[in-house]
Amino acid sequence: MAIERKAWSLLAFLVVVGAASGLCRPDAAAQTTIKPGDELRPLFAMPDDIAEGEELAQASCATCHGAGGVSATAGVPNLAGQRPAYLYLEMKAYQSGGRTSAQMIDKVKFLSDDALVKVAAYYASLDPAQPAEKGAPTIVDPVQAGKNAAAACAGCHGEAGVSSAAGIPNLIGEDPQYLVAAMKDYRSGKRKNDTMKAMVAALADPDMNHIALFYALQKPARAQTPAEGDAEAGKAAAVGCAGCHGDQGVSGNPATPSLAGQDATYLAGALAGYKSATRSNETMAGLAASLDEAAVKNVAAYYAALEPQRVNVSKPLSPDEWAQKCDRCHGPNGNSTQPNIPALAAQRMDYLEAVLHDYQTRARRNSEMAAMADVLSGDDIKGMAAHYSREKARAVVFVTVPGK
Q1: 10, exposed or middle or buried, with CB in 10 Å at 0-12, 13-18, 19+?
Q2: Each residue of 243-266: pLDDT tens digit?
Q3: What gap in Å lies between CA 8 and CA 273, rounded to an integer?
Q4: Which of 138, 151, 215, 304 lies at a 20 to 30 A Cα distance from 82?
Q5: 1.10.760.10, 3.90.230.10, 3.40.190.10, 3.30.70.20: which CATH number matches 142-305?
Q6: Could you report the per-residue pLDDT of 16-61, keeping only the tens digit for each?
Q7: SS3 letters for 247-285?
Q8: By three-state DSSP, how is residue 17 classified?
Q9: Bridge partners, residue 40, by sequence
Q10: Alpha-carbon distance 130 to 391, whole Å?
Q11: Where are the domains of the chain?
Q12: Distance CA 57, CA 136 (A)
């Protein structure tokens, strides 16, 4: 057997598993974490135990996870060299209903605790998978990608999104969510502008996200265009706008545009569009209906004179920077030193991507991982999965020492 070839008969392999009394509850199994009242107890898996674990794994697991625990199946994780307590806890989670893969449940539902320990010990005893080498994806810098994609916008909106042409809006100082929604409205025809529709027609959703992020990170500045109206009179007329657009024209709602520093001609045109119903928004239509032509110019002049503010958006972290956060739990370079936390190094990239998406959608339940995953963009997930898939996996040894 493979175990004999590796000379496991000379070794005693330490396995750390959860005490069954504390880890059979669905909530604990679902999260695969150790909670107050739960216990870990060391068990020694001897060569015969590991050999039995190999027989069980070949019969139940190898079809998907590979004969040596290195998966060749998309979306299926490598198990070789994984931390034994983590493997045990995950199998218990499938048994208890904490995890819901029908295929996995079918494979483990009749296995005893003793069998689970042996399977976990077997996979933990194997040499880990080698780091991925081929097919490395291009790691996207979303800000640079946004700058590149926004080059086509500079002819009208200015290189940094600061307009110098009357009737052309500033793009800085806006939340990315608003800018993306506006681009999608042009693409769908909800907003009427043939030039903009043609410009955004070829943009995929990630392109729009990158462009919006690029403009959100630029230094705020007022549009370099004239304003015809009376700003002081416009201040009084704009009282009804503050509830949505902010007291100083800086919106607190990502879906509502900030107006501070915006081109006055563009603002006046937008208000006229709401009055004539060429722009559709019930709230805006009601507010604009009460404004005559002079009041429209005054309101536009008032907002154009205000100073725009930087959007509360930070430059995204690089995959290496994100990994530094993940390594706090998952160990140096993804090599976990905690028995119940999985190693990530050399794991399949497609599997890591799928897991992070599952935490975002709550298909997998773990409050800490959900909080981490919720702030990740698609680019972040791809970058981190690629990062860890290319880290060298290292075995870990749990050492027992005599008591004092």
Answers
A1: exposed
A2: 999 989 999 999 999 999 999 999
A3: 78
A4: 138
A5: 1.10.760.10
A6: 444 433 333 333 334 445 555 566 777 888 899 999 999 999 999 9
A7: CCCCCCCCCCCCCCCCCHHHHHHHHHHHHHCCCCCHHHH
A8: strand
A9: 18
A10: 9
A11: 2-135+319-389, 142-305
A12: 30
Q: How far is CA 289 from CA 140, 296, 307, in A?
A: 46, 10, 27
Q: What six digits make up the tokens of 46? A: 């001897």
Instruction: Output the pTM of the full model.
Output: 0.73
Q: How many beta carbons lie within 10 A of that of residue 230, not counting itself?
A: 17
Cα 101 to its chain centre, rounded Å, is: 23
C-alpha to C-alpha distance for 227 and 241, rounded to whole angstroms = 19
Residues paired with 16 in a beta bridge: 42
List all residues 6 or more positions away from 218 whose beta carbon is below 8 Å from its beta carbon: 160, 161, 162, 172
Same fold, 2-135+319-389 and 142-305: yes
For domain 2-135+319-389, the question of CATH label 1.10.760.10 is answered with: yes
Amino acid identity of 337? T
Q: Residue 341 in contact with residue 86, Cβ under 8 Å?
A: yes
- Mean residue pLDDT across the chain: 88
- Token pair, residue 285, equals 């239509």
Q: How far apart are CA 174 and CA 216, in angstroms?
A: 6
